[in-house]
Design brief:
The protein is α+β, with helices and mostly antiparallel strands. The protein is built from eight helices and twelve strands. It has one domain. Helices cover 33% and strands 22% of the residues. The N and C termini lie far apart (46 Å). 33% of the residues are buried. The model has no long low-confidence stretch (mean pLDDT 87).
Length: 276
């Protein structure tokens, strides 16, 4: 531990924990123990590599780490697929519900009362991730950094929301989308920008769940109708397809070292023998 000021509670002279940006357990579910090298694949300016290196630093005190964990992180990470082709409780739960809105691209569900869902945990976890990206420059021990998040005037209100001192501002809208295909993309993306003409937007992905944060005075009306704080969860097929394409393009855009080519051949061989 190190002594310093906790960025969540803002108390001075605290013992700061070894805090992770992307939760440590996410790295665990992206490991592939059936491969010769089980480490997650990472994308950075140096290319595509398999590393155990993680985005981490001494940022939060023990009390705040416990708060972040108990109010959202633990529940969300217990309900994502723990391996390729593993059960996905949230997708299974959605299949038992009738959507409240349907069009060719998006199905929207009200999960209030559904025992498998805890909307407050999903919202808290998502807001904590976006806020973490705004208040600290996260790097790995090898020097690879995460995109910086700019929450503007909403950074402090979100911090107070995380402390349970107030609700989210009306200008802030969060959407949550569940992966629809049986085999979930077993990858993760830290928060990053994808702004709209009308407002600011950031998104991130953990296996099976896409979180998108919109904020500003002109958040589109159709986005507001999907507000996760009102117990609404979606299946947004274009957005899911976009995440898949982004991941695929990150691999294709970089020249793969022989070790990485060998690893992808290993994965292809394993998937051929995995039941659909």
């Amino acid at each position: 531990m190190q002594i310093g000021k906790c960025k969540l509670c803002k108390r001075e002279n605290q013992q700061l924990c070894d805090s992770h940006y992307l939760p440590k357990k996410v790295y665990g579910v992206m490991r592939a123990p059936q491969l010769k090298s089980p480490h997650p694949v990472t994308f950075d300016e140096k290319g595509v590599r398999q590393l155990s290196d993680q985005l981490r630093d001494y940022v939060f005190c023990r009390d705040c780490e416990k708060c972040l964990n108990e109010n959202g992180e633990r529940w969300v990470l217990a309900n994502i697929p723990q391996d390729y082709s593993a059960p996905f409780p949230l997708r299974a739960a959605l299949a038992t519900l009738t959507p409240v809105f349907v069009n060719k691209d998006i199905d929207l569900y009200n999960v209030a009362g559904a025992s498998a869902f805890k909307s407050d945990k999903l919202v808290y976890f998502a807001m904590s991730m976006f806020w973490r990206g705004a208040v600290h420059d996260w790097e790995t021990t090898l020097g690879s950094g995460a995109p910086r998040i700019e929450l503007c005037a909403y950074e402090e209100p979100i911090r107070r929301f995380l402390l349970g001192e107030q609700g989210l501002p009306r200008q802030v809208v969060l959407t949550v989308d569940i992966w629809h295909a049986k085999k979930v993309l077993q990858a993760a993306h830290v928060p990053q920008p994808s702004h709209l003409a009308e407002c600011q937007r950031y998104w991130f992905y953990v296996p099976g769940i896409i979180f998108s944060l919109y904020f500003g005075e002109s958040v589109p009306a159709d986005v507001r109708l999907r507000d996760a704080t009102k117990n609404l969860v979606g299946v947004d097929v274009p957005e899911i397809t976009s995440i898949w394409k982004i991941t695929k393009s990150q691999i294709q855009a970089r020249e793969l070292a022989p070790k990485m080519k060998s690893m992808f051949d290993e994965i292809a061989a394993i998937r051929k023998t995995t039941p659909s």
